[in-house]
Write a structure and sequence with these properties.
By secondary structure, this protein is mainly alpha-helical. It has seven helices and three strands; from the N terminus they run αααβααββαα.
């Protein structure tokens, strides 16, 4: 096992930064802002589910609920609402017939394309003063960190 070259204070600062980022990303007002920026009509509670289904789908309803930190029954009802709007559909998993999966429809994909364009406009403004090398490094390191944290179920790593 390799000992990481990171100090306790750095871990604390990193954790604090992650809490700040997650807190900002989870604010309902942020979803409302993105919906408005995208020029779409979508209940803010459905917003992260539609995006998650489009990015991760086909995805099991239980996994989707886990990823968004909501109860399975709540997510199941919300996915039913997305179905009624024609934005997603449920089907049995080809790999495991006991699993219900959600997939985005073409109408849902058109909506997430508008969301992506809005997200891009917001990000371009946020990163306007950043040096391109800083952005490249941030993207590289965030992907590396996410992949590393995803390697172990409890978030610990071994080398």
């Amino acid at each position: 096992m390799q000992i990481a070259h990171i100090e306790r204070q750095q871990i604390r600062e990193l954790h604090g930064s992650l809490i700040d980022i997650v807190s900002l990303m989870n604010r309902p007002q942020r979803d409302e802002q993105m919906v408005k920026e995208a020029g779409i009509a979508l209940d803010r509670a459905l917003f992260p589910l539609l995006v998650g289904i489009e990015r991760l789908g086909p995805i099991g309803i239980v996994e989707l609920a886990d990823r968004v930190g909501r109860d399975y029954t709540t997510v199941s009802r919300q996915v039913a609402k997305l179905e009624s709007l024609g934005l997603a559909e449920r089907r049995q998993s080809a790999a495991d017939r006991r699993v219900n999966e959600a997939v985005v429809t073409s109408k849902g994909k058109a909506m997430t394309d508008k969301i992506d364009a809005a997200r891009e406009r917001v990000a371009m403004a946020a990163f306007a003063s950043w040096d391109p090398r800083e952005i490249d490094e941030l993207v590289r390191l965030m992907r590396k960190f996410a992949d590393t944290m995803g390697d172990e179920p409890d978030g610990t790593t071994e080398s």
